[in-house]
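Researcher: Before we compare anything, I want clean individual predictions. No alignment, no superposition, just each chain on its own. First chain goes here; please echo the sequence and then give the C-alpha cells.
Model: Echoing the first chain and its structure:
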Amino acid sequence: MEKLSILRECVSKLEDSLKLEEITVDRAVFGLFFSGVKLSTGQGGLCFTPVKEIPEAVCCPSSAKAMPLSGRLRGRPVRAYLEDIFCENILRRTLGIAVLNALSTAVWEKSPSQDYEILMGRDAFDELDLSRYPKTVLVGALVPMLKRLLASSSDFRVMEQDPRTLKERELPYYLPPERANECVPDADLLVITGVTILNDTLPGLLEMAKPGAEILLVGPTAGMLPDALFSRGVTMLGGISVTKPDELLDIISEGGSGYHFFGKSAERTLIRKRQRSRFCGESVWPGS
C-alpha cells in the first residue's frame, strides 16, 4: 500500500485542474482546534490541529523545530504546501491539507462535478437513519455521533487513540484501534474522523470495510476533492466550507471552534456520491 495514496491522488487531480504555479497563500493560521489558510485567489481551507501528535511542542527551542517556517508562511507558493503533505513534520502536513482543501474549493467553483453534489448547510450526521444499520463502528470520539448512538440503543463500537476522551457511560463500547479487525469488517455503518487522512490510517480501515457498507468520513480535514475517497468505498463526506476566510482565520487564531463560526464564516457541508440509474442514464442518490 503506497503511503498517503489518497492524498497523492487528490494532489494529482488538482494539478490537472488548476494553474498551481500562479497561486500562493495569503494567510496561514494555527489555532487550538483548527488550522487554516487563505489563498491568493480568495478561497479558504481548514484542517484539524493535531495537538496530541506534537510531542516536540513543549518548550521554545523544540517548538521552533516543530514549525521552522513560522514568519515565512505568507506568500509561499501552494506547491510548496502541497509538497509538505508528504513530509514527516505533522504541522507542515496540517497546513498542506488545509491548502489542499482550499484548492479543492477553487476546483468546484471553476467546474462543478457531475459525479457528486456539494450541499451547503447540511450536517452529515442528520443524513443517517441509524435504524438501517445493525452494526456501527465509530472511528474517533465524535461527540454528536456518540450521543445519537447511545440514544438509539444501537449496536456499536467506538475506536479512539485516547480512551480518556470517552465518558464513563461510553467506555463499555470502547475498542482499541489495534483491534479494528474485530469490528470493522462486520460494520454496516462506518463513521470515520477525517484525522485518519492526516495520520494515514484511513486506507487500512477502508480495506477492511465490507462491500456495501455506508462509510461517512467527517471533520474539517475531510474537505477535499472526494474522487480518491469514493473510489475506495467512502459514500459521504461531511466537511466544512469556508465562506469568509479572513473572519474565520481571525476566529480560529483566538482559539475559536465551530460554535463560533458556523453560520457566520463557514458552513457544514455534505458531499454525497451520485449513482447512475440503469434507466436513461439519469443520476439518483443512493437509497432513493
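Researcher: Okay. Second chain, same rules.
Model: Second chain and its structure:
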Amino acid sequence: MHTTRSADGTAIAFDRTGSGSPVVLVSGASCARGIHTALAELLAAAGPEGAAAPRRHSADRSAGHTVVNYDRRGRGDSGDTLPYAVEREIEDLGAVIEEAGGSAAVFGNSSGAVLALRAAAAGLPITRLALWEPPFQLDAGASGRAEAYAKELAACLAEDRRGDAMALFLRSVGLPAAMISQMRQAPGWASMKAIAPTLAYDAAVMGDNRLPSDLANVEIPTLVLTGSRTGPWAPAAAQALSEVLPSCRHVVLEGQDHNVSWDALLPPLLSFLG
C-alpha cells in the first residue's frame, strides 16, 4: 500500500500493480478499493487481447498495465477531511493520477464512473475513460427520487444510524428487504456500516441523477459498458452519453448485470485501453 496527499492534505491510499501504461480504478458507492483487487490483477497480467501476458523484459511495456487502485476519501485506508465537496474528490483523483505518472486512463465503476466523468470534464489529465454502468436516471421521476433519497440519507447519518443509511442505499438500488435483512446479520455488515457516511458523497456526485451539463467538454476516447440483464436504465444512460460525448462507444456485455464478472469485462476493456 502507498499513500499520496490530496490538495487539502487528505491522505489517499492506493495499491500499484504491474507495469505498462497506467490505469486508475475508481470504485462506486458502498465500496472500498478491495472491490477492484481482482480486476487490478487481471489488468496487470493480461495483454491487449485478454490473454495472460508472457514473461517480458522491463523495457517491454506493451503486454500489461500499471494499475493504480485507490480508496476514495472516507473509505478503507484513506483519510477524510470535512466539509465534503465533489471538487475535493476530483482533486483526490488528480493526486492519484499524478502518482501514476502524470496522466492515465481511468476506469470508473457505477457512481465511480460518474465521478470519473466529472473529473474528465474538470480537465484532469485522463487519456482514456472506461465507464461501467454510470447510474444516470432519465425518467421523469429521477430528480424527485434523488432529492428524497439524499434527504432521508442525511437524516440517518445525522443521527449516526449508519446501518439504516446503508439499508436505505441498498433499497434504493433494488435489493429486496429479505436480502438486506440477511446482510445486516452477516459479518461483513460492520465494514459496510463503517463507510456508510460516504454514501452522502456518492449522492453528491450523482446530484439529481441526470447527466451533468458540461460533458461535451470531454473529448477523450470514452467506452461505456453495460450488461444485458441490468435493466432499461443502463442502456438508456449509455445512449444519452453517446449522444453528448464527442468520442464515445457503447458495448453491451451479454448475460451480465450490474454486479459484473471481471472476466467478462476484461476483453472489451483491454481492447479499448490498448
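Researcher: What stands out in the second chain?
Model: The CA atoms of residues 17 and 243 lie 35 Å apart. Additionally, Residues 48-62 have pLDDT under 50 and may be disordered.
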